[in-house]
């Protein structure tokens, strides 16, 4: 099944999971059980994702946010409620995450493997407002009726980043928590030292999945990405990574790519993980998340 409108495109991973791509290439996943469906992430809120999802399933749908960045939280303002880790609730209401101009700019300006059929306007952006946020924590399970999704907390990209594990399908839905371009030094990010502890926690589940679907890449990764991420964390902390200097597209600050990039943006060393970080955000423990900006609703 391939379904699309001006704003979204959908393709089937299997008979009960639909991957949805927004105009900026950001991914959401509709995972169906016998009784209800989970929408994991909400793209940027440009166009009505809620209406698009209604075309894909007759089941009641609830939302879970992987984290509170603008390219993942948009549809939460349509549904009016979502599950998320409490450590990202403050981030959700910053100008960075909720601001309409930023969310529109992401979709209009970002690269996507999906052909763009329109250019979004401010009239297409779902406005931000206060919503019900239900907490979910490491170890929680969402029962969809004959299908269970396990929450794994992976603080790093943001303090409240989570992933979902479907043990039956042997699939991990990772959003931005671990991928070939894991970004740090952004609003809400932890240090590399703390992220390493999170990846060690995720490694406990390495034998429980065969494929990992992320929040942006069109192709899935394998469990090997966990070992690659640990290797890069160790190299960064030892000052032995490639340290390719560049500029963060959001903060405009100087950042460093841990491993030289090769073809198709993948790391040249042949692995699956890469990390982009700030040198003053390598060491430190809890309490050092980067969170700036006044709470914003409007």
Task: Report what the structure shows.
Helices cover 18% and strands 24% of the residues. The chain is of the alpha+beta class and 298 residues long. It has one domain (2-119, 126-281): 4-Layer Sandwich (Metallo-beta-lactamase, Chain A). It has a six-stranded mixed beta sheet, with no helix packed on it. β2 and β3 (17-21) form a beta hairpin. The radius of gyration is 18 Å and the shape is globular. Residues 290-298 have low confidence and may be disordered.
Total helical elements: 7
Lateral strand order in the biggest sheet = 1-2-3-4-5-6
CATH class: Alpha Beta
Kindly report the average pLDDT value: 93
How many separate domains? Answer: 1
Shape: globular
Q: What's the architecture, going by CATH?
A: 4-Layer Sandwich
Instruction: For the record, give the distance between the C-alpha atoms at the N and C termini, rounded to a whole number.
Output: 37 Å
Count all strands and give the number. Answer: 17
Structural class, please? Answer: alpha+beta
- Secondary-structure element string: EEEEEHEHEHHHEEEEEEHEHEEE
Which superfamily, in CATH terms, is the homologous superfamily?
Ribonuclease Z/Hydroxyacylglutathione hydrolase-like
What is the alpha-carbon Rg in Å? 18 Å
Helix content: 10-25%
Residue fraction in strands: 15-25%
CATH topology group: Metallo-beta-lactamase, Chain A
Largest sheet: 6 strands, mixed
In brief:
With 298 residues, the protein is an alpha+beta fold.
